[in-house]
Amino acid sequence: MKPFITTMSRFILLLFLISCAQPLWAQRIQRSTVYSPQIKDSFLLQVRLPKGYKPGIAYHHIYVPDGSLKMGNYILGKDSSWRADVPENCIIISIAHTGNWHEQRQRDFLPSDAGGYSDKNFGHARHFYLFLKNTLMPSVRRQYGASKSAAFIGHSFSGLFCLYTLFQEDKLFDRHFAISPSVWANNRELLKIEKLHAVKSKQLSGEVSLLAGGLEVFNKVLSSTREFYDTTLARKYLGYKVTFGTINNANHYSIIKPGVDRALASFKN
Predict the structure, then answer these.
(1) Which residues face 209 on adjacent strands?
(2) 114 Cβ contact list (under 8 Å, min separation 6)
(3) Spatial strand order in the sheet of 175-179
(4) DSSP per residue over the chain, as a string?
(5) How many angstroms separate the CA atoms of 54 and 64, rounded?
(6) 118 Cβ contact list (under 8 Å, min separation 6)
(7) pLDDT at 220
(8) Cα angle at 161 between 156 and 164, to 5 degrees?
(9) How far is CA 90 from CA 84, 148, 155, 211, in A?
(10) Would you state the pLDDT for residue 82?
């Protein structure tokens, strides 16, 4: 009988140690599926709450698309060796496609508002914007309360969408972090949208941080991002703050980690 008790004691101790070793993120991420009537598709929503989260306290709400890709996985901290340092005053709202993300990213993040190309699965950034505005963000506020501020971190196509939101009638975000944004996409449609905006308005409310890799020459990211920066800065828009930086030896993917780290660091007290 005694050997059995000893074995059971060791087994219980092992279970206890395993439970204690669970990463903190596993206890703080809430998952759900949200349907968009605007897009007629569903998305995986993953909300990372800070340690010691308290309902009723205002946090910074940081929206992160591409929730199942490299940037999303880094910010959600799913791997102990690939985990962003998220400030405790922030809530991460990650949005992930659930099907063919190659196709869905072109559908949801690429604009066509200035007459650019679009088809069933391409060029419907407007629909994704309306999904955020009318469906997702109101739901997040109901569940987690009003925010200190709202921010968007995007990379590549979602970085393009991040900048696209600046030119919509309702300003959803206070801060916009566009990492290697694909300003060149759909025949430089974003630059055409900006030009139309400049004709009718001298105001562009928002704080924008642009970042591109020094090696992003052949993919047109570096040159088109710099052009967006130069053009919008020269407009002298009221209420507009923009910075542009490069990381010399970074390419389109190695820039993700330092880009995210810079963005999150700006929220630290």
Answers:
(1) 177, 243
(2) 189, 192, 193, 195, 196
(3) 29-36, 41-48, 90-97, 60-64, 149-155, 175-179, 203-213, 238-247
(4) -HHHHHHHHHHHHHHHHHHHTS-HHHHHEEEEEEEETTTTEEEEEEEEPPTT--TTS--EEEEES-TTSHHHHHHHT-BTTB-----TTEEEEEEEESS-HHHHHHHHH---TTS---BTTB--HHHHHHHIIIIIHHHHHHHH---SEEEEEEETHHHHHHHHGGGSSS---SEEEEES--TTHHHHHHHHHHHHHHHH-SEEEEEEEEEEETT-STTSHHHHHHHHHHHHHHHT-EEEEEEEEEETT--TTTTHHHHHHHHHHTT--
(5) 22
(6) 112, 124
(7) 98
(8) 135
(9) 12, 9, 19, 22
(10) 87
Binned average pLDDT, 10 residues per bin, the chain of 269 residues: 52 45 59 98 98 96 97 91 95 97 98 98 99 99 97 99 98 98 99 98 98 98 99 98 98 98 95
Task: Please name the residue that has the structure tokens 């999150």.
Answer: 264
Q: How far apart are CA 152 and CA 264, in angstroms?
A: 11
Q: Domains in the chain, start-ordered, CATH in brackets?
A: 30-265 (3.40.50.1820)
- Among positive and negative, which fits the CA dihedral 58, 63, 69, 70? negative
> Cα–Cα distance between 179 and 208 in angstroms, integer?
11
Say what the pLDDT of residue 10 is.
57
Task: Report residue 150 as tokens.
Answer: 């709202």
